[in-house]
Amino acid sequence: MHGRKSTIEELIALLRPFSRESILYLCFVIGALLKMWNPDESPDSDYALLVRSTFERLRADWYCFSARTNDPEYIFHRRHLLFIAKLAVQHCSTIGFDVLRNAPGIFGTICLMANDHFHFGLTAGNNLTLGVLDRDRIARVLAEFVAVQEYGGIYAVKNTARFHRLYRLHVPALNLHPQYVDIASKFRDITRIELSDFQTIAFGLFARCANVDRSALQANAWVALVRPESVLATALSPELIQKFLEEVSMTSDEARYAITQRDTGANDFTAFRNKPMIRESNGMLAVDKQ
């Protein structure tokens, strides 16, 4: 579209003026509307709405048209939203422009620029030599495929249900094996939460995030924020809910520190895997729904 690949410095400069919370919220809303955990359920109308909300008219028309062709060009994907969220945690402050109130155009450009950093350019040109440096580059790209496969996964509901069934039905039969590891006991020792309770709350929280759709957002623009009181409406004790939320969430400062401890590139979202929710002033935001 723009004829060249953006630099990471250009992307950060465009992202920095916006408030961290508004960027994280928008990334969540895009993922929720497009059902990133099961994109087969995502209505085409929601994709078109998001494109027209993030791009000015000319570019929006092009990408809406492209999505209906035999060789479509799509804007949003899971790794791309996680990458923008990671950059927002690192470079955006609490005080800044609300991206949700910004005119369409700039965030669309941010999306395109973020996508630039998932391309390695190995096929550029007519000839690909295989010198030492080229082999090293290819080896690094192959290593990236592990993260690409992991963070490009879909159908989270089916995967979660499969794990739950395997653990409940087959793990107990292995408890006499000499190499058996009692995962539930070790989990309880580390987190002070029973694994069954943790799974119950996690299922409920995922269901809540999965039900954020266009009608819910139209009724309440901030419905995607997770607050303790919205999770507390269960038969489980407030103390248990609080332990759970502490286990799955972190402050933006903690997220920033975790990223500095390990950041191997655009595909590294280790910090979000460990703590998928960010605590902000208005509530908690699920950076990753999977």
How would you explain this protein's 3D organization?
- By secondary structure, this protein is mostly helical.
- It has one domain.
- Helix content is 56%, strand content 4%.
- It is built from 15 helices and three strands.
- It has helices at residues 8-15, 20-33, 44-54, 57-66, 78-91, 106-116, 132-151, 156-169, 183-191, 195-210, 214-219, 228-231, 238-248, 252-261, 270-274, and strands at 249-251, 277-280, 283-286.
- It has a three-stranded mixed sheet.
- Helix 2 runs antiparallel to helix 5 (78-91).
- The longest helix is centred in the middle third of the chain and has 20 residues, at 132-151.
Beta-strand percentage?
under 5%
- Helix fraction, binned, reads 55-70%
- By secondary-structure content and strand pairing, the structural class works out as mainly alpha
Count of all domains: 1
Order of helices and strands: HHHHHHHHHHHHHEHHEE
Task: Please outline the helices and strands.
Blueprint: H1 8-15, H2 20-33, H3 44-54, H4 57-66, H5 78-91, H6 106-116, H7 132-151, H8 156-169, H9 183-191, H10 195-210, H11 214-219, H12 228-231, H13 238-248, E1 249-251, H14 252-261, H15 270-274, E2 277-280, E3 283-286
Parallel strand pairs: 1-2
Antiparallel strand pairs: 2-3
Helix pairs in contact: 1-6, 2-5, 3-4, 5-6
